[in-house]
Amino acid sequence: MSEQEHNADVITIDGPSGSGKGTISRLLANKLHWHFLDSGALYRLVGLAARNHAIAFDDEEALATLAAHLDVEFGADEDADETHIFLEGEEVSSVIRSEEAGNDASRVAAVQAVRDALYQRQRAFLRPPGLIADGRDMGTVIFPDARLKIFLTASLEERARRRYKQLKEKGLNANLSALLDELAQRDARDKNRSAAPLVPAADAVSIDTSDLSIDAVVAEVYGRWQRIQQA
Ligand code: DC
């Protein structure tokens, strides 16, 4: 079903780790009173479930089965800064935010069968009045008909600094130079994989957030959405 048939609009926010996608998407969803899809969380959950069930990261068939049957629940507190996420009944909201979980996510996300298994689950987040979809392939694969597609970027150094600050604020371990290396590796894996690589959709608006405040980026995207509606 298309976005129009659902009577729900969608704004896609794609970009690399640390580009500000998560924060900006959440703020936009609150501002518009729309739903929010954190698609990266789904890949992080598949990675965690694979570890919990001792499934090897090169066992594509087992990973796809796991993704198709993932027992996950997103808390209904959509206004909160962080959604509570449960995997097989256990709260894993913080666990999936570690750098290790991000790397595991990036590895399982390179498996096309895993992406296929998560396709419908992501589409199901589209409900009236609208959806802010945060990820890597929201505008290219999951919601290609979106009327507004944003691609956020920022320099590697700035993204590493942001991740460092975020992790410290959460009381998690962080090392800036290790983060720089990990982000560079994750970028390379996400961009160079054959399955839905991280690329801007042809009709996406790119915004470099390196020197912009969060509020400025939110205002820019919100303004663009208002202009589209008025057109
Ligand atoms: O946005 P994030 O850091 O939570 O994403 C974790 C990993 O999941 C990221 O390195 C690549 C993958 N991912 C993806 O391939 N497609 C998405 N739509 C979202 C995330």
Automatic annotation (TrEMBL):
Its EC number is 2.7.4.25. InterPro entries: Cytidylate_kin, Cytidylate_kinase_dom, P-loop_NTPase. One of its GO terms (molecular function) is CMP kinase activity. Pfam families: Cytidylate_kin (PF02224). Its main location: cytoplasm. ATP binds at G15, P16, S17, G18, S19, G20, K21, G22, T23. It is found in: Cytoplasm. It catalyses: CMP + ATP = CDP + ADP; dCMP + ATP = dCDP + ADP. GO terms for cellular component: cytosol. Keywords: ATP-binding, Cytoplasm, Kinase, Nucleotide-binding, Transferase. SUPFAM superfamilies: P-loop containing nucleoside triphosphate hydrolases. Residues 11-222 form the Cytidylate kinase domain. GO terms for biological process: nucleobase-containing small molecule interconversion; pyrimidine nucleotide metabolic process. NCBIfam families: cmk (TIGR00017). Belongs to the cytidylate kinase family. Type 1 subfamily. This is Cytidylate kinase. It comes from Candidatus Tenderia electrophaga. The lineage of its organism: Bacteria, Pseudomonadati, Pseudomonadota, Gammaproteobacteria, Candidatus Tenderiales.
